[in-house]
Every structure is written in structure tokens, then in C-alpha cells.
Amino acid sequence: MKNPFIYSNDNKRYHTWNYYLKQKYHSKVFKVPLNANFSCPNRDGTCGVGGCTFCTSLGSGDQVQEMFEPLDIQYDANLKVMKNKWPQGKGFAYFQAYTNTYCSLETLKETIEPFFYKEDVLGLCIATRADCLEDEKIEYLNKLAQEKEIWIELGLQSIYDETAARINRGHTYATFVDCVERLKNTDLKICVHLMNSLPNETKDMMITSAKTIGQLPIHAVKIHMLYLMENTVLAKEYLEHPFPLLSKEDYIDVVVRQLEYLPKEIIIQRLTGDGVKEQQIESFWMLNKTVVLNDIDKEMVKRNTYQGRMLEK
Ligand code: SF4
């Protein structure tokens, strides 16, 4: 069957990150993950303690190599891993762990500029929260973005405030929308993270989250399944009072339907995540990323659907 999706040069029926990067940089592009050892306002008591209940003590940066070493050592170690896979590839420096703008403007500058100005770095990806991007930081980052691409990765997970409260997110959907509004007239690129299978969420709620953020002026989305990692608050809650988790088939069904409501221009940076096998306590099917991604492709072909189909007149 011919692929009806226009932003694709392979069998994918959604706008892949690889497709975007190939068009722009004509090369394989990877992210070099870093842990700058910041904290989060919902960890240190500013708006909560303990962090999001699914988050590990490493602030969702568990894949960073040499994560307790200085940033330049981390960068070299992680770049080496990437270069072993893709010797000709080029990289973005990815400030992944914790909330990377939860600091003073001066600290932010000191942290990111050594990497931003590296000759071999194409740009930056900065993971942060909607309540930690003050106007002065946006203005500063936007100035840098005139020179190289800068992606702001905003964790949201769900548009529902009751879910945010349930997972101790520490901010509301309105705070997220306010942040997107303040970013929208800049050259900063916005990538939003969504998580499927959070407690008390139905499939319809997950689909509505995707549909709703798809109407905002954002550039990319990352979707993944809830990771239940050992020693997290949510894993402990689950072990005491198990709540339903999506099966692989249900996850694929939700993702395909979420994609149908996301405009074609929105880049899909990921549709499944990288758990840490040794720490995961459930949903082991997600460890085989290739199978999950292939099954999403097959399901889209079977339904003869593609990203944005439900938005067509
Ligand atoms: S905001 Fe991010 S790093 Fe902070 S607790 Fe939540 S998931 Fe973890």
C-alpha cells in the first residue's frame, strides 16, 4: 500500500524526528545526554517534595553515562557512545536530567554556553518545566537561538490537573499553556512530553491530551508509556494497590489514535521510551522498542490511517 503521509521518506505514517533532521542537516543527528545536576521545584519544597511520583532519584536522566562526573567528561563519554554507532553523525547537547532552567540566569549561561559554542554541536535540547522559564531566560535563550537551534523540552504528561495532582507534578495545565504562550513568538522550538497509562486515566483522556496540545503552537511531541521504576513513589503505590496498565496492544491503539489528532507538521520525536531494564517492575513489553515501533507502523497501515487524519476537513 502506498504511504499517503507526506512528511516521510520511509514507511512511517507520522512526521519523524529523523525525517526532520535529515531534511535540515542532511546527516544522522543524535542527542548527547547530560546531567547538569540541577533539582526541581517539586523536589526541594518550592512547590512540593519528592518530585513527580514516577521520577527516579536521578531526575529521569538514568541513561546518562558518567552522570556524576563534570559535564565535559559526561559529554565526551556520551559522544563516544553515539559516535560508535554513527561515526559520521552530528550531535545536539541534551540537558536531560532534572529541570535545566531551575537556576539563576548566570548559572544557566555558565552551564550551557561551553556546549552551545562547541564547533561540533548543532544546537541544544533543554529539558525543563513550564514553571521554571522566566521571561529573562526565554529572552536570553532566544538570542542564542538566532545562531543555533534550541529545543525546549517541556514535561507535561497529561492536560488533566487531577492527574497532575495525582503524580505530584506541581503545576497545572494553565501554567503550561502560559509558558507556551510566552515561547510562541520566539525562535525557540517547543517539544512536549506526554505519558500514557498514568493512574486513573482512560484511553479517551490520553487521546484528549494529545488532541488538545496539538492545537497549541508547538513543534514536536514525545509520547511514551509510563515507566514504573523500582524505588519510585508510584512503583510503591502500584505494588500496594495495583492500578490498570496499558497492554502493548492498548498502548498501540492509543498512540495511533493520538497521532490521528496531531497536526502533520508536528514532529514526533518519540513514540516509546528507554526504560532501564534492571529497574523496571512492569510493562516489560516496552523494552523491545523495535517491536513496539514496528507494530505501530503495521497498525497504521491496517487502519489505513496517518498523523493528522482526524483533522482533515
Ligand atoms: S519535573 Fe522532571 S525531573 Fe523533576 S521530578 Fe518531575 S519528572 Fe523528575
TrEMBL record:
Pfam families: Radical_SAM, Radical_SAM_C. Keywords: 4Fe-4S, Iron, Iron-sulfur, Metal-binding, S-adenosyl-L-methionine. This is Radical SAM protein (TIGR01212 family). Residues 30-265 form the Radical SAM core domain. Its cofactor is [4Fe-4S] cluster. Signal peptide: none annotated. NCBIfam families: TIGR01212 family radical SAM protein. InterPro entries: ELP3, Elp3/MiaA/NifB-like_rSAM, Radical_SAM_C, rSAM, rSAM_sf, YhcC-like. PANTHER family: HISTONE ACETYLTRANSFERASE-RELATED, PROTEIN YHCC.
